[in-house]
Amino acid sequence: KDVKKYSEIKKEYKANGYKEISKDTKPLIIEAEKQKRSSQNILRPDSDQSSPELSPYNAMSKVINVSGGDNWKNVTEWIEWDFKAPKAGLYKVVFHAKQGSKPDFSSIRKLVIDGEVPFKEAETIGFEYDLDWQSVELSDGKELYLLYLEEGEHTLRLEVSLTENMAQIIKEATAVQNDLIEIYRKILMVT
Fold first, then answer.
1. pLDDT tens digits, 102-154
2. Which among 112, 109, 120 has a CA at the least distance from the CA of 155?
3. What does the angle CA 167 – CA 168 – CA 173 come to, to the nearest 5 degrees?
4. Contacts of residue 105, Cβ cutoff 8 Å, sequence gap at least 6
5. Among 79, 103, 104, 189, which one is most buried in terms of CB atoms within 10 A?
């Protein structure tokens, strides 16, 4: 299914009269450790005491306060959270994340809300390498992407993904590998 770009979705938001949630409204916070489902048993909540910015945080004892981590790296692995939007409107999305396992690379995640990717740019959200925790806004660096939610229950899924360029490289490498396997089989038959 083709997913529309944010520029098209933004026009639909405007045409429908959707408004951004008021800054006076209490932020909608989804705690990572409160995940509901995951594709693998190894993708479970964990503890991190590296920053008092984490919630919950306790310097004296371990508390479960993170999810994912170094185990969450294979394409199509996913974690889901259920949450409730207090009212209908356009929400700003910010992830509190740390990607300290792949220097010189970004970890790419696909955002899925209620079973659908909200717009094309949500298919490849990049989390840059940094040993510190960082706030990653859903944006292209220039424009903040807002997400429309109806009041009520929703499911958010983050899925390990690849950039379009990386997916193409893997597809071509797989084709070359299959060709080499076929040549190898022919050589075995002749010898």
1. 787 788 899 999 999 999 999 989 888 888 899 899 998 889 999 999 999 99
2. 112
3. 100
4. 129
5. 79
Which two three-digit tokens encode residue 30? 């989804």
pLDDT digits 0-9 by tens, 36-77:
999 988 888 888 888 888 888 888 888 888 888 888 888 889
Structural contact between residues 77 and 40, judged by C-beta atoms closer than 8 angstroms = yes
Q: How is the chain split among helix, strand and coil, in percent rounded to 5?
A: 25, 30, 45
Instruction: Name the β-bridge partners of 94.
Output: 137
User: What DSSP letter does each residue of 20-49 carry, written as one string?
Assistant: BPPTTSPP----GGG--EESSTT---EE--
| DSSP β-ladder status, 37-38 and 78-85 | antiparallel
Report how far residue 130's alpha carbon sits from residue 4's, in angstroms, rounded to the nearest whole number: 31
Q: Is the dihedral angle over the CA atoms 128, 131, 137, 142 positive or is it negative?
A: negative
